[in-house]
């Protein structure tokens, strides 16, 4: 199962990136918070503090908060979001 589908670059997600050190990803609907955390830590070699999920219109979003030593803006730049 491919847990992470793609990152989201909406106006809200950019604000969250700057204020709360959080990135938003579209993820597999069956993925658990633990699986999302493991996939993000492995893919970006970053420390994840918390994962919150939201299911809307049969799509699942994961709000991933990173540790202070890993700025979300750096990861977004590497992904090409910024």
Q: Looking at the structure, what is the overall shape?
A: globular
Radius of gyration: 12 Å
- Largest sheet report: 4 strands, antiparallel
CATH class call: Alpha Beta
Assigned CATH architecture: 2-Layer Sandwich
Give the % helix: 25-40%
Stated plainly, the CATH topology is called Alpha-Beta Plaits
General description of the model:
It is built from three helices and four strands, in the order βαβαββα. The protein has a four-stranded antiparallel sheet. The protein is of the alpha+beta class and 82 residues long. The mean pLDDT is 93. The protein has one domain (4-79): Alpha-Beta Plaits.
Question: Topology, please?
Answer:
Layout: E1 4-7, H1 11-20, E2 22-27, H2 33-44, E3 48-56, E4 59-66, H3 72-79
Antiparallel strand pairs: 1-2, 2-4, 3-4
């Amino acid at each position: 199962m491919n847990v992470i589908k793609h990152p989201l670059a909406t106006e809200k997600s950019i604000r969250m990136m700057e204020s709360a050190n959080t990135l938003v990803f579209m993820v597999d609907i069956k993925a658990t918070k633990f699986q999302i955390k493991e996939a993000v830590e492995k893919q970006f070699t970053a420390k994840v503090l918390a994962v919150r999920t939201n299911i809307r219109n049969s799509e699942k979003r994961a709000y991933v908060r990173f540790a202070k030593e890993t700025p979300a803006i750096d990861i977004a730049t590497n992904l090409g979001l910024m």
